């Protein structure tokens, strides 16, 4: 069983930045994929970024390309999400997810994750 603990998030004005972090513990193998997905009120969950650890291959949804950056520290089982130029459309609960086994490609869809955290709220005001 893998536990994921997210931190960061909060309230920011449009155009501002936030940084989310996530630590995975218990059960990650020698190689895994991690990422972030979000869910806004009344909308389906959307995978926004993903990364293959430790190789570093990444995926970015079109909506966040050029604004969000995912990074990871394989030795610490952590992943971070730097979010810049935030827009009110980015308002959502953000969840950290992991596929706790080696995989060649970054996560792009919800079924690519085995576990996820409790989520952290990101609110962007206009």
Shape: globular
- The computed structural class is mainly beta
Largest sheet: 7 strands, mixed
Summarize model confidence as the mean pLDDT. 94
Supply Rg: 13 Å
Poorly predicted runs are none
Counting DSSP E segments of at least 2 residues, the number of strands comes to 11
Q: How is the quaternary structure best described?
A: single chain
Helix content: under 10%
Provide an overview of this structure.
This protein has strands at 3-8, 10-13, 18-25, 32-39, 46-53, 58-60, 68-73, 78-83, 92-99, 115-116, 120-125. By secondary structure, the chain is an all-beta fold. Strands 2, 4, 5, 6, 9, 10 and 11 form a 7-stranded mixed beta sheet that branches. The chain has a 4-stranded antiparallel beta sheet with strand order 1-3-8-7, with no helix packed on it. The protein starts with a strand and ends with a strand.
Describe what is shown at a glance.
The protein is 0% helix and 52% strand. The chain is globular and about 45 Å long.
Notable features of this structure?
126 residues, mainly beta, 4-stranded antiparallel β-sheet, globular
How is the topology of this model organized?
Layout: E1 3-8, E2 10-13, E3 18-25, E4 32-39, E5 46-53, E6 58-60, E7 68-73, E8 78-83, E9 92-99, E10 115-116, E11 120-125
């Amino acid at each position: 069983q893998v536990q994921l603990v997210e931190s960061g998030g909060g309230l920011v004005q449009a155009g501002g930045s936030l940084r989310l972090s996530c630590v995975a513990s218990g059960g990650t193998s020698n190689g895994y994929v991690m990422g972030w997905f979000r869910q806004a009120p009344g909308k389906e969950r959307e995978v926004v970024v993903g990364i293959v650890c430790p190789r570093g291959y990444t995926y970015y949804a079109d909506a966040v390309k050029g604004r969000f950056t995912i990074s990871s520290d394989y030795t610490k089982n952590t992943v971070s999400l730097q979010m810049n130029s935030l827009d009110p459309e980015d308002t959502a609960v953000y969840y950290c997810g992991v596929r706790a086994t080696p995989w060649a490609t970054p996560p792009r869809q919800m079924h690519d994750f085995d576990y996820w955290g409790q989520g952290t709220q990101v609110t962007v005001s206009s």
